[in-house]
Structure formats: structure tokens, C-alpha cells
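Entry 14. Structure prediction run on the chain below.
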Amino acid sequence: QSTIPTGPTNPSPADRQAARNFAIQGIAADQRSDWSTSLDRFVQAEQLFHAPIHLRFIARAREHTNPPRLVECAEVWRRLSQEPLAADAPAPFRDAVAEARRELPRVEAVLGRLRVEGNVADARVEVDGQPFSGAPGAPHWVMPGPHRVVARRAGAPDFEQTISVAQGAQQVVMVTFAAPTTTVQGGGPVGVASP
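Output returned:
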């Protein structure tokens, strides 16, 4: 699950103008359903100047790309739904946060949740080849379908499991590491008599 670098809330005049230009281009792309261009322009705008309205358009673009990037879309709606707003925040900022709070449950209902549990505190865990950054037991939002979980710990064989997650459902992967194979002098496994 990717994150978007957030720019300052008080950028330089030059960065503010550059962000505004990117946003204007992004809105035009959104209106003609050019989602990849809209996404690119609003990500660049957000990196220069943090504004809730940028996140609103980023979430829209991620949902409408082909294929839809719904996990990342939900990530942005979730972040926007928790945006702290000043009492005098502009109406478009307040509207963007309100929209996020409406849209987030809709998008999450289409996804599935994967929880990784077990003794993984000192293990490296990957889901579909990407580092799993969530806390053990925390839900990891995924597209419905099969997902491969790999956990690695020094001195133990890798743990691997593929699990299918249904839309709206939650699946738990319990990571357990097998005892390492120990050999006796001469190369034979422990417990196996040499001929």
C-alpha cells in the first residue's frame, strides 16, 4: 500500500503557484476522464502544497484507473477522512473531508482484509512480494482473490502460504516457523542413523 508524500501547508509562493498549476491541469484531466494524467498532476500538487482537495482527486483517479487501484483509493479516502480542519477551513476542504467519510465505507466494502498473526515480531513479512508494514493482527486491505504471504526469520525455513480472500471478508494467516533442520557430523539429519 503506497503512500503519498505530503507537502507543507505553508509553501513558498513559487511552490504554491506551481501546485495551483498542477491542480488546474489535474482538474482538466479529471473532466475528460484522463485518470493517469489527473493522478500524476494532483500527486505533484500535493507534494508541493498539502490541500485536502488534492487528496479527493487522487482518490477519484485511483478508483477509475484501469485496472482500478481500490486499495490505494481506500488508503487516500481513509487519510482524508481523518484530516484535521481549522475552524475557518475553506468550504472545498470541508466538502472533500465529508466526501471521504461517505466514500470510504463504499470502497472498503469491495475489498477484503488480510490479517497476519503469529510470532512475527522479528520476521520480515511480505504480501504479494511487497513488505507488510502493518502491525501484527492489524487488517491489511487487499483486492479479492489469492494472495501469497511469505515470512522470513534468521535461522528458520521461510513460511509461505497462499490464501484466497473474498470481497468483504477477512482471512487470517497464522505464521508459524518450522524448527530448523539440524545435521549431525557426516551430513545426516538428526535422528536418522547412518548406515
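The beta strands are 112-118, 124-127, 130-131, 139-142, 145-152, 159-165, 170-175.
Filed with the rest of this week's runs.
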